[in-house]
Structure formats: C-alpha cells, structure tokens
User: Fold this.
Amino acid sequence: MSSLKKGVGSLKKKLSTYEITEKNVQRAIRDFKRLLIANDVSIEVADAITDDLVKKMKGTRTRRFSDLSKLLLEVAEPTLIKIISPTKSFDLIEEIVEKRKETEQSLTKKPIVILLLGINGTGKTTTIAKLAYLLKKKKMRVILAASDTFRSGAQEQLKIHADKVGVKIISGDYGSDSAAVAYDAIAHAKSKYADVVIIDTSGRMAINKDLMEEMKKIKRVTNPDYTILVVDALAGNDATKQASDFHASITLDGVILSKMDADARGGALISVTHATAGVPILYIGTGQKYSNLERFESEEFIRKLLK
Ligand SMILES: Nc1nc2c(ncn2[C@@H]2O[C@H](COP(=O)(O)OP(=O)(O)OP(=O)(O)O)[C@@H](O)[C@H]2O)c(=O)[nH]1
Ligand SMILES: [Mg+2]
Assistant:
C-alpha cells in the first residue's frame, strides 16, 4: 500500500470523530492538502484540488452526512477524478491488437511503432521487455530496436531481454546514429510483416539539450504511433516535472510510472496527467518481472484510494 493510501486511511479515522462545523470543514481540507503534498502530489495540483473542494463545500448540504470524514470523501472523489482524468484513456495493448486486426488483409501494412523515452535509469528497457511480453501473449510479432547506442552495455542488456521474451532485436554499434537503428528495425519489420516495433532509447542524467535533440530526431525519423515516457515513481515530484518537460518538447501519448512497488509515495499518479494537460498514465510498473506491469485507470485508482 502506498503511503498516500495509508495517509488517507488515518485522515478518515481522525475526521470521523470531528463534528461538522464550518471551522472543522476548513481544517479537514487543510489536512487533506497537507497529506497530498507530503506524498509527492505537486503543490500546483494540491492547490487546484483544494480550491475546488472549498468551492464545492459551499454548495453542499452538510447536515445529511453522519461525520466529517464521509463529507470530505464524497466531495473529494469527483474533484480528484476530474483533476487527474486524461483527455483520452486507452488500453495500449488492446488498441494495438485491434488496429492490427483492421489492417490484416492489407498487403502494405506497416508495423505499429512505439517509442519509449525517459531520463537515465527510469526503467525504459525493462518496461520494453514487459510490453513485448504482453504483446507476445496476444500473438503479436514484436521487434525491438536497440536505439540506445549511447550507454555501454545497453545493446547487450536489451538482447538478453529479447531472448528471454522470445522476440527479435535489431542492434546497432555504440556511437552510431540511434535514429538510423530505429529506422532499420522498422524497415526490417515491414519486410517481415511484423506487427509492432518498440524502440529503446538512451537516457541522460537529467533532461538536457542533447537528450531532447536526439529524441526529437528519432521521433521525426520513425514517426511513431505512440510516444511514451517512462518515469520513476521514486523520483517523487521530479517525475511530474519530467513529464511536463518532455511533453512540452516532444508531444507524448502516454506515461508509464515504473517502480510503484518500491515504496513510492504515489503522488505522481495524481500530478502527472494534470501537469501534462491530459496525457494518460497507461501502466504502472510493479516489480522487475515481465508480468509486473499493471494497467492504470485514473477513476478506479481514485475510488480505491478513497475507499
Ligand atoms: N522494483 C522495480 N524495479 C524496476 C521496475 N522497472 C525497472 N526496474 C529496475 O530499474 C533498474 C533500471 O531499469 P532499466 O530498464 O535498465 O532502466 P533504463 O531507463 O533503461 O536505464 P538506462 O538505459 O540506463 O537509461 C533495473 O534494475 C530494473 O530492474 C519496476 O517497476 N519495479
Ligand atoms: Mg535502458
């Protein structure tokens, strides 16, 4: 359980003993905001949530609630859902399978291209293996493009995953043009009528100009169907900042939040979509095994969080 969920639990307990008075309502909203911020929800998002709560409380007939905890949660649920809902939510794997069905008969069918981005060590390569594993289970033929020609060992690391999952990999030489490797993988996939190409890219210690220029070039050359950012949930507020910075330079279709199992506070799950004006969180990484990738749905997440 994330510390955010634990915190909601303790707050509920505490508030259930309070009388519903104007003063206590304000205090409850203040405590809720503190809880959000302490668990890595960005200040901006916590402000947006509390502003909305204050407004809604004014129009709520408080008498019908048996205690303050029930009142706060009932008002907070639609507020949180509204704030963290993406403009478009979709199941990536299901959507890919559907798209391939539609073009099954076409002789000129092109593979679906997924580009994964992110700074150093967020979990890009592992997440690619997890996606390949899920797609393979759906009988999709997957090719991995080892476009991380920057970090030593990156090519071999992806090859190990490819072998374990049982998918093909197109590699490149270290120091060579990463976009060219991706281009080759797509050409190969086209000639073999493969279904999906997933491109592994290199990270950098932080977001910098080199990284952004390289990513923009790969995106231009490969014209991906899905551009997905992998952020590390343990990075807390910085995960949200990475999402908004990447989205501002390279339009994203989705975000995957890795390492949710590793004691992450969980606030990034609330901030990311708001900070990117609607980019969905598609999955959360919940471990190092290939099956440790779970679909994320914002509405369901909020309902469980407040329950
Ligand atoms: N606990 C946990 N560990 C994860 C998860 N996803 C990735 N990891 C671990 O995080 C570490 C880094 O993962 P990589 O996949 O190599 O990350 P990367 O973004 O490709 O790293 P670079 O290529 O160096 O930029 C590895 O030890 C992974 O096993 C997850 O969901 N949970
Ligand atoms: Mg990697």
